[in-house]
Amino acid sequence: MADSALHMKLMEGSESARLVVGAGRSRGIRNARRVLECMDGRAESGGESMVRARMIELGYKEPELQVEFPNPLEPGHTYRADMLIRCGERLVVVELDGKCKYEDPEMLVGRTPLRVLLDERQREALLTSHGVEVMRLRYEDVMDEGRFKRLMDAYRIPRVAR
């Protein structure tokens, strides 16, 4: 919710900081401070926020959000990845896949679900031309902690000390 409030410009980070600073040792203040430290208005969906929160919760390196890559077929155009994790020399793009992009008429924008899938495959192929690995996550992957850890470890996402 904090990411969304920042993204929609319903609040500013400095506003929240003032509220939390004045709360002293109130019940739940530790969690509120943690949320404040982690919130990021670049998240474009609740799902992206959930993925990032799960990464932070489990001690994985925090991703960069909404990173752009040049489209090699169309100079001046870019592709934007949901998240990017820099693992030394390796770059791992994390994409969250939901059913709505294949079913919701607003997200289909006049395309068939098959066309969306084919466009997505082309986009992923072009992303790999930049030397990135692409990890695709589903909501179910994020909600199943064991499965999420196995995926993160399979892509060799580093853990960090916090």
Folded structure, characterized:
With 162 residues, the protein is of the alpha+beta class. The protein contains nine helices and four strands, in the order ααααβββαααβαα. The chain has a four-stranded mixed sheet, with helices on both faces. Helix 2 (13-21) packs antiparallel against helix 3.
Q: How are the secondary structure elements laid out?
A:
Layout: H1 2-7, H2 13-21, H3 29-38, H4 46-57, E1 64-70, E2 78-87, E3 90-97, H5 100-103, H6 105-108, H7 113-128, E4 132-138, H8 139-143, H9 145-154
Parallel strand pairs: 3-4
Antiparallel strand pairs: 1-2, 2-3
Helix pairs in contact: 2-3
Structural class: alpha+beta
Biggest beta sheet summary: 4 strands, mixed
Q: If you average the pLDDT, what whole number results? A: 81
Measured on Cα atoms, how large is the radius of gyration? Answer: 18 Å
Give the tally of β-strands. 4
Low-pLDDT segments, ≥5 res: none
β content, as a range?
Answer: 15-25%
Q: What is the approximate shape?
A: globular
Helix content: 40-55%
First-last Cα distance: 23 Å
The helix-strand sequence is HHHHEEEHHHEHH
Helical stretch tally: 9
Oligomer: single chain
Spatial order of strands in the largest sheet: 1-2-3-4
What keyword list fits this structure?
four-stranded mixed β-sheet; single chain; alpha+beta; 162 residues; 9 helices
